[in-house]
Design a protein that fits this description.
Shape: globular
Distance between the termini: 26 Å
Strand order of the largest sheet: 6-7-8-3-9
Radius of gyration: 17 Å
Oligomer: single chain
Length: 208
Amino acid sequence: MNAPLLEVRALACERGQKPLFQGVNFQLSGGQWLHLEGANGAGKTSLLRILCGLAPAAAGDTLWRGLPISHPDSDYRAQRLFMGHQLALKEELSALENLLFDAAIAGRPCTQQEALMALAEQGLQGREHLPLRVLSQGQKRRCALARLRPGMFHLWLLDEPFVALDALAVERLRLQLSRHVALGGAVLYTSHQPVALDGEGRSYRLGA
């Protein structure tokens, strides 16, 4: 088995000085996926925010390639992509402009042709130049999902990525995530829907 990219050791989280979860342990290597399950309020989003370095843990450690994710020698921030409930899109910009703007902010090269191809893969042909405010919630989510370009980030951390998608878009995204894993990437995602990816993976349940 490959050495773990991401390792979580005895992680704990508190909300309002009350325990939300504790003793969370798992590893995730390249070419693997992990489906994070749990009831509403179990702390799935809080766990993802800790893994991203956006919130502190009450206890435990999160390691990337053997180093704490906050270590100055770690390349964790450059190698992980986080997509949460908030899509971080600008309503006044088009889908294409949003994707190009996002790539520029992240310091990741993206040509207009690459952006158009990414949007087409999400089924947004013909809507690339429309302002986000006129798109449906599902179309906005697909615009955000166009950030998931192969080879750009090693680890994808996704909070409920299948929400607001129709059956065709769900399957399209499932195959896209599976392809990332097949190419050696890693995916950690939450979902209330029973969506399993292809390849090597497993589920981890918070509050079990």
